[in-house]
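Write out this protein's structure.
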Amino acid sequence: MEYKMKAIDPVCGMTVEKEKAKFKTVKEGKEYFFCSKNCFDKFTGKEKATEHKHFIDSDSKEKNHASKEITDSSSKETSSVSRETILIKDMHCASCALTIEKSLKKIDGVKSANVNFATEKAVVEFDKNTVSREKFEETIEKAGYGIIKEEKEFGKNKVVLKVHGMDSQHCAGIIEDTLKKIDGVKSYQTNLTTQKATVLFDSSAVKVSDLIKAIGNAGYETEKYAPTDIERDARQKEIKEYKNKFLLSIALSLPLMYLMFSNFFALPVPETILENEVLIQLLLATLVMWIGKKFFISGFKALILNRNPNMDSLVAIGVGSAYSFSLIASIMIFSGSALFTSMDLYFEVAAFLIAFILLGKYFEALAKGKTSEAIKKLMGLQAKTALVERNKKETEIPIEEVLIGDIVIVKPGAKIPVDGKLVFGHSSVDESMVTGESIPVEKNINDLVIGATINMTGSFKFRAEKVGEETVLSQIIKFVEDAQASKAPIQELGDKIASVFVPAVMAIAIISALLWFFVFGQGFLFSLTIFISVMIIACPCAIGLATPTAVMVGTGLGAEHGILIKNASALQKAGEINAVVFDKTGTLTKGKPEVTDIISLNGFKEKEILEIAAAVENKSEHPLGEAIVKAAKQKKISFDELKEFNSVSGKGIKASYKGKNILLGNRKLMEENKIEVSGLENSLQELENNGKTVVMLSVNNKLSGIISVADTLKETSFDAVKQLKEMHLDVIMISGDNERTARAIGEETGIERVFAEVLPEEKAEKILELQKEGRCLIPGSLIFSNPTLKEIEKVDVGDKVLSSNGKSQIVKEVFKRNYEGEIVNIKAAYLPQVSMTPEHPVKVFRYEKIKNRKNIYRKFNRGFKDFNNYLNWVEAKNLTNSDYVVFPKYNVEETTSLDLTKYILNEKYYRINKNRIVSSQNISLPKMIGVNQKFLELCGWYLAEGSANNKMVEFSLSRREKVRANRIGNLIENIFGVSPVIEIRDKEIRVRIKSKLLVRFFRDQFNSHAKNKKIPIWITNAPKSYLFSFLEAYRFGDGHSTDKLWIFNTASRILANQLLIVLNKLGYVGSLNENKGARRGSTMYVVTVSKNPKRKYYIENKDFYLLPIRKKTKSKYKGKVYNLETEDHTYSALFVVHNCVGAVGDGINDAPMLAQADIGIAIGSGTDVAIETGGIILVKNDLRDVVKAIKLSRHSMNKIKQNFFWAFAYNLIGIPVAAGILFPFTGILLSPVIAGTAMAFSSVSVVTNSLLLKNAKI
């Protein structure tokens, strides 16, 4: 053994190895050794001795310096709302994520919490004055989950140093004293355990290299600590852990499986093993249970402590049941009981389940790791060092030390370290890794360069403008991370199911096992197998991973193509767009206009005009202003500073220049100030028709000159518009320019619809107008009645509805959106009030030559031959009280008779669904259901007087209606062959039929609640004679008649509207009125029909009625909007569909428009305000990326829907199979081992399907 000479430091008393000591001296003939320069200086008198202050306790736990905290005061937010991202481990399903989310949301001060199962992150927004990150971590750990501790964030003002040899509190004190003396060090913190020092410093005053040098001079070897990717390391650790656990568990499980097979096959087994088989099985299975103990700990914690069971709870109970049963059986075998043998043990099932679940988790972790590859690729792009000019020398420094304003040198083939502007040289740069643009971009002086891109050919210098977290690459990484951690609205479905999934599965497992044991008489082992299989096969993981994995891959794929998506909601919404609005300047055009023409007026010269205009526009940031200033400078025209300057938004500028009042702007500015421009109209039109923007100059209220400015289109504009149109999207352009100029640009790009002369503050209003418009393929028709939203929600493609042509039409498409805005309410004579959006077209008769309605009626009576010329589609907002609504006559279709009564009392009958009777017999119906007249009469009585409770159908009549009660009883007996009970009470008579089948039928077809009663369509389409019987019965029951009128009463608005349709078919026009408070405050609807009207308040021919509009009002509406397209392209719905509008812009003026749109798309070359407002950012200046963003959204949503389908299908099929549904028919019972294997790989299949999104062509 080598003996090491040691000495004692005379200052601090620390033991020092003589050979390694860097500081030593001789005093009075004696040699002294020192632990550091600090002690050496004190001993030799170079520094006054000061008492060391140590800030590390005896347990080596780090503490903050007493006088300074590691807090960057410059970064303190003025707002108290803060945001933290926490990495979580041990989440195994969507239920885990929901449990954590709910726990976090309960904490006081938390504004919002979002836990993403796929990324294993929690993002919490909170009031930092109320709560801190430590509380969140404590809550997560209390819920039974782990926290992955992250290194503190690294930036340009913060560094972590690895200090070798910092072995004691004394050493730590020396390091702190050294750092304290350095100018620019704001605060510091040492950690003795990890030998690290964290330093917060002013990067303009001191560099990292200075810190390393100072600590080195103190006697400690120091280097910058490079933090590892905590998330990646945790993921790799998890993958390795699952792999090792699986290999070990399968190695222990295989002998168990061999022993199990030896009971059925002649497999060789040593006698010693056979004698101790039970003990061997117990030991091997117990070891496997120990390997999978995490499932048991997590599962029972969630079940007992959180009372919110998760997937681990299912595994723990399922596997635990198999193991526990086997353990009890083993104990009884050891005690000599003959009740059990080794063949009754389930140890191999329990062990193999754990092994295969671990295998599934291993593959799931691998697959989930691949979904975040986009982030890893982006992080890998960052340069490590930069070559900068310092003190007129080229110096290579770490990228963290690059400062704003540094001159950075880039050589051929080198990676550009940060963002900046070229100041010397030129080159071509490959920006594909950031923008997705494959062609290298030429860079000249004043051009911007992006960090992480690669210089191709020449050398150049640039001035650093954005460093650290401000660079484009850092922002892209942040965008993608935030998007991947967010939730799409579609995920709400998965969350709702996941919240009840596990308890439901546990209930199914218990009920299934009990049914097989007690009801079907199977044995205990059989029932236990059922219980275990159901518990094991259920997989909430697949449901929980359906959305976030697709979002992760989709947002990553977008980033690779230069499309940054802010959040999952934006990713979903982009695919729903049906209209795209483009700003003109800087979006469709290059935004770099040039002066093309100058027209002199009233004695002014071109030079004067350009001088004044340039002086006025000198401080303007508008592209038109920049073009004018550029033209003046090119012609070397000098101009003075303005004294007065006032910008008039969307119109121009008012200013004072050299004592003259100046106006510079468009027509509106001139007209407002009464400057005459009409004499120049021809010249202005010629310029504007060529796509040029005209700027007019007025000096002292006289028009002095005209400057025209032209902006060229981007190369990609036409192609982008063409592709959007091919996707059947509406394309609109919005511009502040005049009508002719805007139209010219529109024609050049292929955009037909143009909004011109729109002020910046009006752009958002135009977007709102578009959203309200709705999208009709062909102008729609009159809404003949207002079904409730519940009724409309039931309509589906393939269903039949009564359309405006008077026939039943098959629904071809259903449009549904959310709508908020103004609606128009129209009340026509005889019809209920109809509500629609302002732009909804209504077919009306409008004859403006005759105002008096009596004269209109006379004209029709005398024969109005060309009245068809006056039938027009008019937008609802433009309707007047002089218009007549076209109300079609409904034709009764021929029907093939099918006696429905034969099926109502059939035990196997369930319900009528569209065109078939849904039952085990699956009877197909003809186009319409035919019924006999008596049955239709009974239906009329039921709608008026009937009700259905859980046990019976009941008709209630007054005591004086005994004859009608007998009539109802006779109808029931004749139709169904059932004798009803007629009960006569003091004030009423009740006719009752005890039949669950009739209860089911009447409830299904007519609804049981009085306010929701309805007429089925098979009654509406019955022959006329049958309809008369139906109406007569209803009138007797809930109506009355006079000499002139039939009157029908109902509490159901739906039924009242349907009565109007039935009356229409019989050739009558009924009038609907509301009677509020008629019965205990409720609303009654009264339908009145004139038997033989002497005077008709409508016009009639063989095809339709013309009904006068009596009242038109407006109101606000917020809710669902429906539009149904039928075979003949007519519509019948409550409201027109809402447009989903995407807006594309690049400037400050576009921000309100982007915010109002359903999805705002900002051009990456635009202003920070526009980028901040947009939900999607296009890094490249290529409008074709708008098309790519929409396609990416649709591909992503399709993947999510596929994932949900397979996740639901797996569970809907797997759980019943595990519950033994196939056993009575096939004798096959699902093995728990197969169930466990299926469960293990179900989530893997969902993640793998999401990964296929990488191959999507966008």
